[in-house]
Write a structure and sequence with these properties.
Elements (H helix, E strand, L loop, with lengths): L3 E4 L4 E4 L9 E4 L4 E6 L4 E5 L6 E3 L14 E6 L5 E2 L11 E8 L2 E8 L2 E8 L6 E10 L5 E14 L1 H4 L3 H4 L5 E4 L2 E4 L9 E7 L5 E5 H5 L9 H5 L12 E11 L4 E12 L20 H7 L2 H20 L1 E4 L3 H21 L14 E2 H11 L4 H12 L11 E3 L4 E2 L10 H16 L8 E2 L9 E2 H13 L44 E2 H20 L3 H21 L9 E2 L5 E2 L9 E2 H9 L8 H12 L1 E2 L2 E2 L2 E2 L25 E2 L3 H10 L3 H11 L8 H4 L7 E4 L10 E4 L4 H13 L2 E4 L2 E4 L9 E8 L2 E9 L6 E5 L2 E3 L3 E2 L8 E8 L1
Parallel strand pairs: 39-43
Antiparallel strand pairs: 1-2, 2-9, 3-4, 4-5, 6-13, 7-8, 7-13, 9-10, 10-11, 11-12, 12-19, 13-18, 14-15, 15-16, 16-19, 17-18, 20-38, 21-22, 22-23, 24-25, 26-27, 27-28, 29-32, 30-31, 33-34, 34-35, 36-37, 37-42, 38-39, 40-41, 40-43
Helix pairs in contact: 7-8, 7-19, 8-9, 8-10, 8-19, 9-10, 10-11, 10-12, 11-12, 12-13, 12-14, 14-15, 14-16, 16-17, 16-19, 17-19
This protein binds alpha-D-glucopyranose (2 copies).
């Protein structure tokens, strides 16, 4: 069953039932101030770093599941009844509930006993604040006297400390209230130069800032005592739990609508100007006041919203398609692109499944994320690449993660994930293919953030490639180190101690266990690097890379082929993983997808055989599982992969991140039907009708769907922040639809289903708008290209030299 519908014209998903199987969330903010917001107004906000600058409090893994939010209450002052238009926290059976999740905003509301109310939440561009616009309409035939309440709970900044260090935290909370604005200033008196504020456009209302005064003793957010009583108490928080709550009275004639604006914001002050008057302990508010004056005016709030809309129109307009498949269209045109921006902004930090206090930015994850957003944010992609490369080690290896605030490698996790360096090559190649900005290769970049160690970025790529050559194992395959792409295949770990990290515990010397996956990745990255070298005129160097690639290709055929599919790895005993000889885990998706994607065995049938085996052993109607048979017990020599119950996560779950490798592999063999079929199996929009089974949001990808060995086969988990976003976007846009960036220009190479008559697309690329029409005249994938009517040889639109800013590209497929 469905819980809502797609409004494609407005680029919204409209949830029409509040009790979704899981909280269905959206993101607010796209620069420095961010929030997550669920369909019932749960969620929290933070400035830049979800751990260190958490503005509001959220209770992960609470019951009900989603708690802590931007809660609005309405109270009918005649009947004394109160409710929340967003359903939570009071959970009244309101009518016409809807949550419209859009691009950077959410509008949530309902009608209750003739009072209609909606709140639109968004973060204006270039501001460190969020606006809530509450609109209340009286649909009754009589006058209504309504009190509105808006509330948030402040977090004491460090989200980790906030949930653990109560002996201190219950004593440090501080606020100020001035002109009806609530200022949260915990720790401002000493080492913090930042504060938060919560303001309202309603004049003359009352407020509360101490949680217990607002909620009452022994009560929760579902029944605040002050709301019940219809009167906030004017409390000033000292210690305990500072909150912000505003009350305003609304007199509404029949049919009348009124709007109240609320602003929740974050502000930093220069150290020397923290207090006003100087020497006092009172916050200097001069930087906040003009901002408040501006956005508390509804007309200015509307104008800011309009700018946000234009911003997203601009980003999404870079690539738009019209295909015969509605699910393809809305994912490519709207939601998948939007999710790619979220993964870029958030990395893996804050979602309903990532608590904002966990992981730093992953080296491999961030490089892969580039594939999905580089066309929308090329300048920020360049910055990201340089930041990532600066955490690379002189050996060519990389810190597995870095912390975004310090931009330094994370020592707790360290390095030694031997696939990491190659993703840098792939990320940089994607950047150059998109932008044509070759100058990035000359950018001086440090190693391990050490001043004086700078080399041109190009040398970072050279060292990445060399890293594997310096670490070959007994069969000539790359040594795996702590893990390759599969973080849970920990072949050098051998852990039997509870609580030990599978990724950072290394009990073996690492000289035996080898990864066929890294071999495939090396072949792919090596070809990319060779093409870059050749473009720079370094032909001998390019030839050297290709020779190494060819050698690795041979090694994979000899030691990485199991007869019907590619092996996965060799363990610390030199035994095969992912082989028919194994009792469990006989065949894995990663190598069968990636080796073919890299071009291994395309000519001699190995690739076709590998994909046939993948289809036979791994494909399910909910997607392709990671391996089969699932591990039914813990294998000391395999690590975390065998710690998960069968069917979940890396133990034979459908890991939606690597399904597109098989999709791309199918396109490399010219199989458009198969590729699009796999694409559709995990496309969230195509799964909307089974929302009760799928459970996660139907508008974004989840990291995992439970595999066939799990009792919950088909159930998704870990939505939003996953490499799945970028890879699926890349697979559909560049390989199935085949509008592909290359070093030489825009390539047109669709491999679409046979039944499609064609499709149209608009792509802005290197400053030129390409209006593309693909027309099928035969069943194959052969291309005949014309550009502005003139036939062009091959399938790459050559760079335009005559200043044309828009061209018409027509491709006949036969
Ligand atoms: C998660 C990690 C990613 C890893 C994948 C498979 O998505 O973020 O780095 O490759 O799991 O283990
Ligand atoms: C990846 C995997 C997860 C594992 C984690 C460790 O995210 O998906 O299962 O626990 O890496 O870092």
């Amino acid at each position: 069953m469905k819980y809502g519908f797609f409004d494609d014209l407005k680029r919204e998903y409209v949830i029409t039932q509040p009790d979704t199987p899981l909280p269905w969330i959206n993101y607010l903010g796209c620069q420095a101030y961010f929030g997550i917001i669920s369909n019932t107004a749960g969620g929290y906000s933070f400035y830049r770093d979800a751990r260190l600058r958490r503005i509001t409090r959220y209770r992960y893994n609470n019951v009900p599941l989603d708690f802590g939010g931007r809660y609005v209450y309405l109270r009918d002052d005649e009947s004394k009844e109160f409710w929340s238009p967003s359903w939570q926290p009071t959970r009244h059976n309101a009518e016409d509930y809807s949550c419209r999740h859009g691009m950077g905003y959410s509008t949530i509301g309902s009608s209750y006993k003739g009072i209609e109310a909606h709140t639109r939440y968004f973060v204006p561009l270039d501001e460190n604040l969020e606006i809530w616009q509450l609109t209340v309409t009286n649909r009754r035939s009589t006058k209504a006297t309504i009190s509105s309440f808006a509330s948030i709970e402040f977090c004491l900044w460090d989200a980790q400390d906030d949930t653990t260090n109560f002996q201190r935290n219950f004593s440090i909370g501080q606020v100020e209230v001035e002109d009806g604005v609530i200022y949260h200033k915990t720790e401002y008196r000493e080492r913090r130069d930042h504060f938060a504020y919560f303001a309202t456009s309603a004049k003359g209302g009352s407020f509360d800032t101490q949680r217990e005064s607002f909620l009452g003793r022994n009560r929760g957010w579902d029944k605040p005592a002050a709301v019940e009583a219809g009167q906030l108490t004017g409390s000033i928080a000292h210690g305990w739990a500072p909150i912000g709550a505003h009350q305003a009275k609304l007199e509404l004639a029949p049919g009348e609508t009124k709007q109240i604006v609320f602003i929740l914001g974050y502000q930093e002050n220069p150290v020397a100007e923290k207090f006003d008057p100087p020497g006092s302990q009172i916050i200097n508010k001069k930087r906040v006041k003009p901002t408040l004056a501006k956005y508390l005016n509804p007309a200015n709030a509307d104008a800011a919203f309009e700018l946000l809309r234009q911003y997203w129109d601009g980003l999404l307009g870079i690539f738009q398609v019209n295909t015969p498949d509605v699910h393809t269209n809305r994912m490519v045109n709207i939601w998948n692109a939007y999710q790619c921006m979220a993964t870029f902004n958030m990395s893996r930090s804050a979602s309903f499944y990532e608590s904002g206090i966990g992981r730093g930015l992953g080296f491999r994850d961030s490089n892969q994320d580039l594939l999905g957003f580089v066309h929308m944010a090329p300048i920020r992609a360049r910055e990201r690449i340089v930041d990532l490369a600066a955490t690379q080690l002189p050996t060519g290896g990389a810190y597995h993660q870095y912390q975004p605030l310090t931009k330094r490698g994370n020592n707790d996790v360290g390095s030694g994930f031997n696939d990491d360096p190659h993703w840098l090559i792939i990320g940089v190649a994607a950047y150059i293919k998109e932008t044509g900005d070759w100058s990035i290769l000359d950018e001086p970049v440090q190693y391990d953030n050490t001043p004086g160690s700078e080399t041109p970025l190009y040398e970072h790529l050279q060292r990445s490639f060399q890293y594997t050559l310096d670490r070959l194992g007994p069969h000539g395959l790359p040594l795996i180190g702590r893990a390759d792409w599969n973080d849970c295949l920990n072949l050098n770990c051998f852990s039997d101690t509870p609580g030990q990290s599978f990724q950072t515990t290394t009990n073996k010397d690492g000289k035996v266990a080898e990864s066929v996956f890294i071999a495939g990745l090396f072949v792919h990255a090596g070809q990319e690097l060779a093409a870059i070298a050749a473009h720079r005129g370094l032909n001998a160097e390019a030839a050297k890379y290709l020779a190494e690639v060819e050698k690795m290709d041979q090694v994979v055929r000899k030691h990485g082929w199991d007869g019907e599919w590619f092996l996965r790895a060799y363990d610390d005993f030199g035994a095969k993983i992912g082989s028919k000889e194994c009792e469990e885990g006989k065949i894995f998706i990663e190598t069968n997808g990636y080796c073919v994607l890299a071009g291994i065995g395309l000519e001699d049938g190995l690739a076709a055989k590998a994909l046939e085996s993948t289809r036979k052993h791994l494909a399910t109607k909910h997607g392709i599982v990671l391996q089969q048979p699932a591990y039914s017990r813990y294998y000391l020599n395999l690590g975390e992969i065998s710690s998960y119950p069968p069917g979940y996560k890396e133990n034979a779950g459908i890991f939606c991140h690597n399904n597109p490798w098989v999709i791309i592999a199918e396109t490399r063999l010219g199989h458009g039907d198969e590729a699009h079929d796999y694409y559709s199996r995990i496309n969230p929009s195509a799964r909307e009708g089974i929302s009760d089974l799928h459970r996660c949001e139907p508008y974004v990808y989840a990291q995992m769907i439970a595999g066939r060995d799990a009792p919950t086969h088909g159930e998704a988990k870990n939505s939003w922040l996953t490499g799945t976003a970028a890879w699926n976007y890349y697979a559909i846009a560049q390989w199935i639809l085949g509008i592909r960036t290359s070093l030489d220009g825009l390539q047109i190479a669709p491999v679409i289903p046979k039944s499609w008559p064609g499709f149209t697309a608009t792509r802005t690329y290197r400053g030129v708008v390409y209006k593309i029409t693909i027309e099928r005249q035969g069943e194959g994938n052969n291309i005949a290209l014309t550009v502005d009517g003139a036939p062009v040889a091959g399938n790459v639109v050559p760079p335009l030299t005559d200043g044309r800013k828009e061209v018409t590209v027509k491709a006949i497929l036969s």
